[in-house]
């Protein structure tokens, strides 16, 4: 018995705008969009996110996810340069003592997106 993937489903009141943001700002591809069902899916490399409007099964008023969506990358600095002027920043790029170089931004719904990559430990951290 396996779990093959874990795909987050993020609720939004602005389905089209959210799809557009992930495509235009982050470079995702919209692989499924069914406005009549309030559903979309965006993908980029190994990242896969489902987006859904409110429905009878899961009503909501605003995003309530208390964690973050952590995206592992091989070039956190390039992502930082791409996003720093386009997104609301949670914290800027930094190399942490636990061996990760990362930063965090908010998407247009307020979901927290972190981008990080492992780094070799050095005596001097930036």
Question: What's the short story on this structure?
Answer:
The protein is of the alpha/beta class. The protein has helices at residues 15-26, 76-83, and strands at residues 9-11, 29-34, 39-44, 47-52, 69-72, 88-95, 100-106, 112-118.
Question: Can you describe this structure?
Answer:
By secondary structure, the protein is of the alpha/beta class. It folds into two domains: about 1-55, 2,3-Dihydroxybiphenyl 1,2-Dioxygenase, domain 1 (Roll); about 65-125, 2,3-Dihydroxybiphenyl 1,2-Dioxygenase, domain 1 (Roll). It is about 15% helix and about 35% strand. It has helices at about 15-25, 75-85, and strands at about 10, 30-35, 40-45, 45-50, 70, 90-95, 100-105, 110-120. The chain has a four-stranded mixed β-sheet, with helices on one face. It has a four-stranded mixed β-sheet with strand order 5-8-7-6, with helices on one face. The N and C termini lie far apart (about 45 Å). The mean pLDDT is about 90.
Which descriptors would you attach to this protein?
4-stranded mixed β-sheet; globular; 16% helix; alpha/beta; 37% strand; 2,3-Dihydroxybiphenyl 1,2-Dioxygenase, domain 1; 2 domains
């Amino acid at each position: 018995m396996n779990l093959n993937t874990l795909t987050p489903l993020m609720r939004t009141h602005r389905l089209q705008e959210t799809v557009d943001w992930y495509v235009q700002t982050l470079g995702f591809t919209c692989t499924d969009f069914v406005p009549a069902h309030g559903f979309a899916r965006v993908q980029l490399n190994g990242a896969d996110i489902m987006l859904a409007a409110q429905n009878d099964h899961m009503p909501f008023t605003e995003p309530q996810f208390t964690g973050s969506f952590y995206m592992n990358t091989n070039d956190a600095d390039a992502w930082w340069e791409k996003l720093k002027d386009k997104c609301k920043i949670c914290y800027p790029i930094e190399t942490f003592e636990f061996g990760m170089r990362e930063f965090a931004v908010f998407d247009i719904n307020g979901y927290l997106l972190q981008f990080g990559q492992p780094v070799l430990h050095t005596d001097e951290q930036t």
